[in-house]
Amino acid sequence: MSKSTGYAGQILEINLNEKIAERKDLNKEFCMKYLGGIGFNARIIYDGVPVGIDPLSEANILAFSAGTMVGATFPTASRTEVSAKSPLTGRFGTANSGMFFGTQLKNAGFDSLIIKGRADNTMYLLIEDGEVSYLDAAGLWGKDSWETIDILKKKYSGCEVAAIGPAGENLVRFASIENGYYDAWSRTGMGAVMGSKNLKAIVVRGTLGIRPHNVEKFLDVSWKARKLIESSPFFVPFKSYGSMNAAMPYGKFNALNANNFSQGCLPDWKEDFARSKVEEITNGHIACQSCIIACAHWVEIKEGKYKGLRMKGMEVTPIASFGSGCGMSLEASVKASEMHQKYGMDMVSSSGVVGMAIELFNRGIIKTEDIGYEVAFGDDDAILRLMDDIAYRKGLGNILAEGTLRSAQHFEDGAASAMHVKGLEIPMIDPRGRTSTWSLGILTNIRGGDHLRCRNPIENLRYNENKYNFQKERFGFDRPMYDALDMPEDLKPKAIDLENDTTDIAVMSRWSEDLINLFNSLGICIRPPVEHKIGPTVLAEAYTAFTGIQITPEQLMQSAERIWNLMKLFNLREGEKPEDSKFPQRFYKIEVGGKKLDEVQMQEVLRQYYLERGWDSDTGIPTEEKLRELGLDTMQS
Amino acid sequence: MKNMLMIDHHKCVGCKNCEMVCSLVHEGICASSLSRIRVAKDERAGWNVPISCVMCEKPLCVTVCPVGAASRNPVTGLVTFDEQKCIGCRQCIQVCPFSHANFNQALGVAFKCDQCEGEPQCVKYCPSGAITFEPLEIALHQRRQETAQKIAADTLI
Hints:
- The complex is a heterodimer.
- By secondary structure, chain A is an alpha+beta fold.
- Chain A is built from 28 helices and 20 strands.
- The longest helix of chain A has 21 residues, at 553-573.
- Chain B is α+β, with helices and mostly antiparallel strands.
- Chain B has helices at 17-27, 60-64, 91-95, 121-125, 136-155; strands at 3-7, 38-42, 47-51, 70-72, 79-81, 102-104, 109-111, 131-135.
- Chains A and B meet through α4, α7 and β13 of A and α1 of B.
C-alpha cells in the first residue's frame, strides 16, 4: 500500500538503542481488522510487549497511531492515540489527543510510530517526509515542555511537537506527553514511558498529503457528517461552553469528586464555578484539526494573584479535578492547569494523589514534618507547592509521584483514602450521585478508573434518578431522538425502553465502549454532539470513500469490539483479576447527598455487562466462542 | 456589486478545514502545502489568521511574471495563474506582499487562489464564518454594525 489512499500507508518502527528505523507497509486485512489509532496500538502493544515486564524498562514499547480519518475534511478527525504498558496501572496504558500532531505524522508518511528500546543519551526525534533524524537533546533535557516546544517550533517551522516535561524526565508514574502547548496524552503515564526511553520530544512535519480514494464521495460524506453534528441539540451548548456544560448538573446531583470524594459537591461550587464566572474569564473559540465545534476557549485571569495568566483552557476535567477534587479556587485551578502542562503531568491523577495526601493529613497519618508545610483542601498555595514537589520528586512528593495505589502503601490505612480503580485515579464524577452508563464505564474501562471510554450517546443530564437498582438511567427524550440514533435496529429496543423511559446501563455501556473505540480508531472526537449523531453507518460510508476499502457498519463495529477484547486480553495476560473491577469501598459504605452504591447490585450490573460482551458472567473473561467470533482465538491470555 | 473574499480573523478558530478542502478540490489531495488559503497561527499566543489572495488592483505577481502566465481580469478583478504558461521561476512568490502565491513542487508551477469559479469552497467549509464571499459594501456594513453595537453598548448610561 505504498500508494495508499486515506491511510499514509506505512508504520515506522524506531529502535532507539541502534538508531535504526524500519518501515512496514500496511495491508488491507490488518487495516480492516484494526482500523487505525487505538486499534493499531492494541495489536502493536499486544504483540510487542513481553508479559510481566517493568513498564519503565527498555522492553516496553511506546506507540503513536493517528486515527484513520485524520488530516482531511471529515469533521473532528484529528486524534492520535498513544499506548504502552502503563507504569501506573501495569495494564494497557493509553491516551488520546487531538490538535495537529496526527495530521503532521500522516503528512510525514506514517500512520503509526513504534518506539522501542532506550537511547544511550537523551534524544529527540525529527520525522520529516519519510526520513528520521536522531538528535541530541542535551540542550532540552531539564526544560519544561513549553520551553522545549518553543525551541523546537522555532527551529523546525510548521512542525508539531510531542514532548515531555520534568515529570516525564523524573519518571512520575502519571507523567503525560504534551501535544503542543495546551493538549496532552495525559492518562496512564505515557510520559514516564517516554522519559524512561531518554526521549525528550518527537518533532513531526510533512508535505506528502493525504489522498482520499474517492474525492467526490468523501466530500459528500464529510458534509453530511457536519450537518448531522450541527443538528444535535448538544451542538450549540458545546460550542458555547465546551465540556464545562457538565460542571453544574454534576454539582447539582452531588455527583462530583469534592475534596477527595468526601462530599458530592462543595458548598460554594455553584457560585464560584458558575457559567457566568466562566464567561467572565473566557473568550474566543479554539478548534482541533477539522473540527466544526471548537469547544476550547481562551482563558484570561483578569484580577488577583494570577492576573495576566492567559492560556487555552476551561476543560471540565482539570477544572473539576483541581477546583472540586482539591477545593481550589477557579483562578488557581487555571494556574494548576498551566503548571501541569509545563511539567507534563496528568491533572486527574495528580489531583487524585494530592487529594489522598490532604485527607491523610487531616486524618493525622501524614504530619506537617513529613511534608515540610501544612496542607488543606482549598489551600491553593500549599497544593501548588505539593504538585511541584511531585513533579520534581522532592520530599513527600517522591512517594506521591508513584500514584495513589503505590503511595497509599506507605501510610497506615492509606488504602482507605486512595480513590482509584485498577491503579488509575478516578476523575471528577462520583457514581454515588449519579449512576449511569458513564459511571459504570469507570469500572469497566480497559485503562482503569477513567470516564472517557464509555458514555451514553443520548445521556440526559436533566435526570439522576437512582430508583432502578443501578441498572437503568432515565432516557427523558422525545421519540425522534430515539429514531435518529445510529444503532442496529435489534439493539435499540434492548438499550432504550421507550415505554418506561429508561436506558439500560449494561447494554448501553457495551455499545458506547465499542462506539468510542471506533472513534478512537478512526480519530474522531467523542464530544457529545459527535457521539450522539455519528455512528457506524456514516463512518462506514466515510471509511470506504476515504480508504477505498469496502467496509460495512457491522464490520466496523466488530473491529471496534475486537480491539476492546484484545486490550482486555492484554490486561488478563498481565494478571488482571475479576475482583479488580470494584469501586473504592467508600462508594459502597459512605453516603454522599444521601446516596451510596449497593455492592451486590453493582455486581449484578457488571454481570449483565459481561453477558452483553459475550464474556464469562462471573469472571469477566472473554469466552472462547467470543474470541473465535472475533478471530482472536489464537491469542494467549 | 462584485463578491470579494473577506477574512475576519477574529472569528477564525484555527481548524484548517479551509486548507483541507482547498487542496482537495484543486489537487485531489489534502495537503496544507498545496492549499490556496493558509492559516497562520501561533498556538501559544492564541492567534489564527487565514491568509489568501486579496486580488490586488495592481498585482505585483502580474507585473513581475516574465511570460504572461499571471493575469488580472479587468472586469471581474480576478487574478489567476495559467499553469500551462508558467515557467516555474517563482518571481511571483518572491514579490507577493502577503506570502500567498505558492509553488507546487511536483508540477514545477506556481499556484494561487482562483476563487473556485465563483464558489469558494473555503467559505462553504469554514465552520465559524471567518471567511465570507460577498460584496465589499455588504461585508463592511456587517462589520460596522458589529463594531457600532459594541460602542453603543459601552456608552449606554
